[in-house]
Amino acid sequence: GLHTSWDEVMIAVKLESYEMNVAVAVGSARNASAILKGSKNVYDGDPVRYWGQHIDGAGAEMAFAKFIGLYWDGSVDTYRKSCGDLPHTGIDVKHSKDGFWKVKDRDKGELVLVSGTMPDFVIDSYCNSDEVKSASLQISVGLWNVAESVKRRNFDFLMKKIWRKSFDARTAIMNMGGSL
User: Fold this and answer.
1) Do β-strands 110-117 and 92-96 pair in parallel, antiparallel, or remain unpaired?
2) What is the 3-state secondary structure (H, E, C) of the chain?
């Protein structure tokens, strides 16, 4: 094969200009929605920077969807529905510009860790939120940094699991007379 171990591979994803435009629109809609609802940002910082956080977060989701080869819907206001950042997968994408990912108390299941900023992203690893909460440093109430020991870099299993879950969910929708 081309490589002997996933640990030796850097998964770099570059978004095309049209993909960036979609991510900018989605991230902007998410931030505008948060402002209109009066949502509290879980990360301290300058509210002006929240626009960029939402936009790069949307770009990270698109980058992972591009890597894994599944549809990304760019949804807004669905983060509490436990459907995941990619439809029907339950996978959440966590973005970081500096390589330190924060996991919130409400985060459940598998989390994909992506770093970078438009247009260049790196799919770093994935982890399970429960493992993060039991093995990582809690930096404040309900907020953890992801420990290196819980990161997984072999994406074979996760990719098969995501594709299967997505296929099964779409098949069930179609069998019930729904549309995608």
Assistant:
1) parallel
2) CCCCCHHHCCEEEECCHHHHHHHHHHHHHHHHHHHHHCCCCCCCCCHHHHHHHHHHHHHHHHHHHHHHCCCCCCCCCCCCCCCCCCCCCCCEEEEECCCCCEEECCCCCEEEEEEEECCEEEEEEEEEHHHHHHHCCEEECCEEECCHHHCECCHHHHHHHHHHHHHHHHHHHHHCCCCC
CB 70 within 8 Å of CB 89: yes
pTM of the model: 0.83
Write out pLDDT tens, residues 119-167.
Answer: 999 999 999 999 989 888 788 887 888 888 999 888 888 888 888 887 8
Instruction: Label residue 27 by pLDDT band (50, 70, 90).
Output: very high
**Count of C-beta atoms within a 10 Å radius of residue 115:** 21
